[in-house]
């Protein structure tokens, strides 16, 4: 094993993402050879790294799953939450959610032990689309659609332009490239609507399909290749590296 930054070592072990690893380090929950780890530490071959007194391997076979999250399940790896998504999935290896859906929402969420992909997938500047089916408590008007598409002031910012299409008297389909906290619900609330149902049906090229609430499956080779082409996944170690497009 080569020397690694502490947060990368934790992410490579499949324990959590780099961002979550930074938080664990800041909270004093990580040790290297018995001493408290700090941000920027380097892990050398032979070092023993513990998180909450549990040893990490530093390397794990990468796992990529898709789950149809039911309503009521919470997108956290925190075991103190009884309805956390990790315990609900009960996968034999430790995995964590990529991004989140709020407790009241359902639909497609990716689960992985690859801490490298989280920021690549979630950053808005990447333009990675996420598609949702939404129902609200009042008729969807042309004005409502136009204002949603143009951007809505929430959380001290204005949402990025998005695609919105009416699908019924009180329902619509929306495609976002950003993921602010409870974004769709807040956008609707700002325009005088209340969301009564929300389901994510697509992330980039990966579609929920016929997967029922609570069901999961590994991503297919074609879906993984699509993530590589989008710059989300690294090329396999035995494959030639792709040249980054400018």
Automatic annotation (TrEMBL):
Domain RNA-binding S4 as annotated: residue spans: 4-71
Pfam families: PseudoU_synth_2 (PF00849), S4 (PF01479)
Top EC group: isomerase
Gene Ontology biological process terms from the UniProt entry: enzyme-directed rRNA pseudouridine synthesis
Gene3D superfamilies linked: Alpha-L RNA-binding motif (3.30.70.1560), Pseudouridine synthase I, catalytic domain, N-terminal subdomain (3.30.70.580), RNA-binding S4 domain (3.10.290.10)
NCBIfam families according to UniProt: pseudouridine synthase
Protein name: Pseudouridine synthase
């Amino acid at each position: 094993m080569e020397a690694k930054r502490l947060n990368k070592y934790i992410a490579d072990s499949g324990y959590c993402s780099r961002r979550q690893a930074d938080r664990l380090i800041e909270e004093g929950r990580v040790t290297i050879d018995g001493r408290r780890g700090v941000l920027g530490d380097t892990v050398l071959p032979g070092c023993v790294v513990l998180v909450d007194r549990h040893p990490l391997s530093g390397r794990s076979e990468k796992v990529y799953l898709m789950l149809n999250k039911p309503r009521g399940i919470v997108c956290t790896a925190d075991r103190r939450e009884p309805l956390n998504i990790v315990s609900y999935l009960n996968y034999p290896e430790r995995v964590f959610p990529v991004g989140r859906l709020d407790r009241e929402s359902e639909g497609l969420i990716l689960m992985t032990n690859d801490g490298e992909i989280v920021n690549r997938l979630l950053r808005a500047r990447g333009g990675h689309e996420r598609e949702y089916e939404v129902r609200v408590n009042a008729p969807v008007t042309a004005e409502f659609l136009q204002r949603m598409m143009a951007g809505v002031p929430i959380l001290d910012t204005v949402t990025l332009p998005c695609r919105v299409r009416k699908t019924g008297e009180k329902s619509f389909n929306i495609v976002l490239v950003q993921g602010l906290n409870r974004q769709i619900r807040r956008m609707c609330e700002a325009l005088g609507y209340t969301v009564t149902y929300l389901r994510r049906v697509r992330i980039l090229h990966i579609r929920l399909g016929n997967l029922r609430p609570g069901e999961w499956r590994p991503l297919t080779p074609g879906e993984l290749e699509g993530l590589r082409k989008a710059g989300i996944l690294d090329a396999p170690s035995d494959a030639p590296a792709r040249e980054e497009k400018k």
